[in-house]
TrEMBL record:
Residues 854-904 form the 26S proteasome non-ATPase regulatory subunit RPN1 C-terminal domain. Belongs to the proteasome subunit S2 family. GO terms for molecular function: enzyme regulator activity. Residues 23-323 form the RPN1 N-terminal domain. This is 26S proteasome non-ATPase regulatory subunit 2. The keyword Ligase does not apply. GO terms for cellular component: nucleus; proteasome regulatory particle, base subcomplex; proteasome storage granule. Gene3D superfamilies: Leucine-rich Repeat Variant. Keywords: Proteasome, Repeat.
Length: 907
């Protein structure tokens, strides 16, 4: 029986035999000498080919049976005399050329395309989708071989694109036009039924092409959205392009007041300044939305709806009663370093109660007592926590902070100045209280007050690019004497001018660096933050860093490489550029060579910054040895001659930059997590410290099981710095999620590190981040369905993680207040629905995991694992929402953040 099945002669039916005989007869006629019989035979052959039906997995029978005659038919083409007959003959050869039996020569010589150009150039789609796809393939190949053939091919290309767009094959049309670089002809074939599918596909393609092509694609998408009056979608694309003129133009052209308000909410979330000049909606109303003045009131309303207004104490977060016995960190850890644990509790208290306006430590009558339970520089951070508690509440939050401005203690006063800056973070107020209160202390004699005022200004006006604020901060950079003031003022100026390529900030920082390039000051970890401040000005601006990059060439290694990598990290943050990631991975794998040892000092084994004298104990006299051994008469230790360079820092920055570039592109992020795992296993000590931070940056406020497990392993590392960074990274990953599994893991880490103050401090901080805003906030820079990256939020994360590359000198030293820059990244992770009067309205919504529907046929479901809720709701990372009622239509392109709904008119 198997022989019968395998024998094609047995399988052939009578119909097939008749078809073969008919086709042979037609071939004989078209290859014969009688010219009168050729054209009718060709018409008959065309009809048979076009009307043949087959499955998608087999070749049409006419093409299959005509295959053996292909070369005979092709050879006879030159004998045809009549022009119309010759065109029809060419059509038949072109179709037969795509058959597998046509041979490899037909495909290599592009017979399908060649004979189509000799035949009829219109209505090629009538031969079927497979034939059109073969033509598309050969057009692209021919175009790459000879671009001069463009004018001859364009009529055929236009006919194919028209066919594709009218027959649900828009994706193929886009692919062909992108391959031959003629995407500009696509818009005239786009109609009301296809523009959404085409625009969605083009936006996804823009991630994988070079900058010039991506800009071209996104501009076409924005124009199509504008053409079909999808203004909010066009605005999202314009924000991706960072095209201020396009954004202002969209606001000017839109005539629908409800859509204008929705656009204002989108721009406000991105902190994008808008030059509003439209009379449809009152200037003041749009101005209030753009200024984020609604943020605090809506957030408190959300808290009231969720019944979480009751303040939480740090002990409510630690939950020490759930920790394993008999070891209790409240007994051991707190007693080991109670000042550090009080400082940790101050941070935790601020982050957990962020935006709620009340707590149980600072806003009560005993607030002063808690502040004075801290010492020296810790009092600054403790007082500054008030800024988090009153976050976004400009009207009501300044009064409780004001009384601390009159304190006799400089650290408390500096903390109050920093708190004022945080209260005004992401919110604009026409009275400008932050500028009025902080500007006077920018040049104060007290360094603490200067730091509080400068850092506060940077956070209060982050992303605003205001010239009056920069005119205050840039002179501070230029006249800074100490490294701390220089670093803080540079960071503040960078925050204000983030992503603007501001020349004044760049020139000020570069001039200052050039002035001190021969000194030992460059070896301070604070100098990396100085360069980072300049780099923030180029956030997401890619190739714009060429000039500052060239200026940094005058510095010696490793400062030059470190600075250039910081620039590259910011410039390509969130772009997903594969070539940049490959270059950064090369830097991670190749360590910079050590300079010649000229001063009798050798590198410490760990590659850290401490210098070890080469002179040993053998050179010490017996009397000196006795003095060393005597407990009371030890001579004072000699200070190291110089501070040694840490040669692994460029690699550490490169590892962090890999994650920063990959953020926002899912496939790249997943691959980077795998690569970073290998890097952490085999890399040097500096890279080992940076890898947990880099992994956390790829999964901010998104506690995935795989990421949690990797970071938990690092958190048990024998090196305290690696363990501390991994623990902090767990806080970044779980920030604002209230993740139960992560919280249980942190409680176990609190027990494990109960005798070690530094990791325990990080455990407490990570617990505070995990419960940030009682689970209502996020610090992820991605929003609007991961289409946009908030440059200010990314800046806040990069400052924090860069500071942690040397946490022993900065975060665990006197500069722990740097961590408050996370306030710039904080946003509610809500879906808040408003009616046309901007009043909160509750509607049922379906919430589930987002599904990628780009290029899929029909109308596939965009979410999976659906749960129905009533707004307002909290959205986790990777979740998407849809309206579950037909009574409303949404104005926002995605249900994310603040969305305005309009009631549908009853028919």
């Amino acid at each position: 029986m198997s022989k019968k099945v395998n024998n094609p002669q047995v399988e052939e039916s009578e119909e097939d035999k008749e078809l073969q005989e008919e086709l042979k007869m037609l071939v004989d006629r078209i290859t014969g000498t009688d010219q009168k019989l050729i054209k009718p035979a060709l018409n008959m052959l065309r009809t048979l080919i076009k009307t043949s039906t087959t499955s998608m997995t087999s070749v049409p029978k006419p093409l299959k049976y005509l295959g053996p005659y292909y070369n005979i038919i092709k050879a006879n083409f030159k004998n045809i005399e009549d022009a119309d007959t010759k065109k029809l003959y060419a059509d038949i050869i072109s179709v037969l050329a795509m058959s597998p039996t046509g041979g490899d020569d037909a495909k290599q010589q592009h017979d399908c395309l060649r004979y189509r150009l000799l035949g009829h150039m219109k209505n090629v789609g009538s031969w079927g989708h497979e034939y059109v796809r073969q033509l598309e393939t050969e057009i692209v190949e021919q175009w790459s071989i000879c671009s001069d053939s463009g004018p001859k091919l364009m009529p055929l290309v236009q006919d194919i694109v028209s066919f594709d767009c009218n027959n649900h094959a828009e994706i193929q049309a886009c692919d062909v036009l992108m391959e031959i670089d003629r995407l500009e002809i696509l818009p005239k074939y786009i109609d009301n039924g296809t523009y959404q599918r085409i625009c969605l596909y083009l936006m996804s393609c823009a991630k994988y092409v070079d900058d010039v092509e991506a800009t071209k694609i996104l501009k076409i998408v924005a124009d199509q959205y504008k053409r079909f009056e999808e203004y909010p979608r066009a605005l999202v694309v314009a924000l991706q392009l960072r095209d201020k003129e396009m954004v202002d133009g969209l606001f000017a052209d839109c005539k629908d007041p409800i859509i204008l308000k929705q656009m204002a909410f989108i721009a406000a979330r991105q902190l994008h300044p808008v030059n509003y000049r439209n009379s449809v909606v009152d200037q003041e109303e749009i101005g209030n939305i753009l200024s984020n003045n609604y943020l605090n009131s809506h957030f408190v309303a959300l808290a009231r709806e969720l019944d979480i207004l009751e303040p939480k104490t740090p002990e409510d977060v630690y939950k020490t009663w759930l920790e394993p016995q008999p070891v209790r960190p409240s007994i051991l850890g707190e007693n080991l370093d109670s000042a550090r644990q009080n400082l940790a509790s101050s941070f935790v208290n601020g982050f957990v109660n962020a935006g709620f306006g009340s707590d149980k430590l600072l806003t009560t009558d005993t607030g002063n007592k808690w502040i004075y339970r801290n010492k020296d520089h810790a009092m600054l951070s403790t007082t500054a926590a008030l800024g988090l508690i009153h976050l976004w509440d400009v009207d009501g939050g300044l009064t409780p902070i004001d009384k601390y401005l009159y304190s006799a203690d400089e650290n408390i006063k500096a903390g109050a100045l920093l708190a004022i800056g945080m209260v005004n973070c992401r919110v604009s107020n026409e009275c400008d209280p932050a500028l009025a209160l902080l500007a006077d202390h920018v040049n104060d004699e007290s360094q603490s007050l200067r730091i509080g005022a400068i850092y506060g200004l940077g956070m209060a006006y982050a992303g605003s690019a205001r010239e009056d604020v920069l005119n205050i901060l840039v002179p501070v950079v230029e006249s800074a004497i100490g490294t701390e003031i220089l670093a803080i003022s540079s960071l503040a100026a960078g925050l204000v001018a983030v992503g603007t390529c501001n020349a004044a900030v760049t020139n000020a920082v570069l001039s200052k660096l050039v002035d001190i390039r021969e000194s030992e000051t460059l070896k301070s970890p604070l100098m990396r933050l100085t360069v980072l401040g300049m780099a923030l000005c180029y956030m997401g601006r890619k190739d714009c860093i060429e000039t500052p990059n060239a200026a940094l060439e005058v510095f010696t290694e490793p400062f030059k490489s470190t600075s250039q990598l910081l620039l590259q990290m910011c410039a390509y943050a969130g772009t997903g550029d594969v070539l940049v990631i490959q270059e950064l991975l090369r830097v991670v794998s190749e360590r910079i060579a050590l300079p010649d040892d000229k001063d009798g000092l050798t590198k410490s084994p760990s590659g850290s910054s401490g210098a070890i004298p080469t002179v040993g104990v053998t050179d010490i006299t017996q009397q000196q040895q006795q003095l060393y051994n005597h407990p009371l008469q030890q001579p004072p230790r000699k200070k190291a001659k110089i501070r040694e360079w840490d040669m692994s820092i460029p690699q550490a920055v490169a590892a962090l930059a890999v994650a920063a570039v990959a953020v926002g592109e899912e496939t790249g992020t997943e691959m980077c997590q795998r690569v970073l795992g290998h890097v952490g296993r085999y890399g040097d000590h500096g890279v080992h410290k940076a890898v947990p931070l880099a992994i956390a940056l790829t999964s901010v406020s998104n506690p995935q099981l795989t990421v949690n497990d990797v970071l938990t392993k690092y958190s048990h590392d024998s090196d305290d710095e690696v363990a501390a960074n991994a623990i902090f990274s767990l806080g970044i990953v779980g920030a604002g999620t209230n993740n139960a599994r992560l919280s249980a893991g942190l409680r176990q880490l609190a027990v494990y590190h109960s005798r070690n103050p530094t990791p325990l401090f990080m455990v407490r901080f990570a617990q505070g981040l995990t419960h940030m805003g009682k689970g209502t906030l996020t610090i992820s820079p991605l929003h609007h369905d991961r289409q946009l990256i908030d440059p200010c939020a990314m800046a806040g994360l990069l400052i924090t993680l860069t500071a942690l590359l040397d946490s022993r000198a900065l975060i665990n030293g006197k500069n722990h207040f740097l961590l408050y820059v996370l306030a710039v990244s904080m946003q509610p992770r809500w879906l808040l629905t408003l009616d046309e009067e901007l009043q909160s309205t509750s509607v049922p919504v379906r919430v589930g995991q987002a599904v990628d529907v780009v290029g899929k046929a029909g109308t596939p479901k965009t979410i999976s694992g659906i749960h129905t809720h009533t707004t307002p709701v909290l959205l986790a990372a990777g979740e998407r929402a849809e309206i579950a009622t037909d009574l409303y239509e949404q104005m926002s392109p995605t249900l994310d953040g603040v969305c305005i709904l309009r009631k549908k008119k009853l028919e």
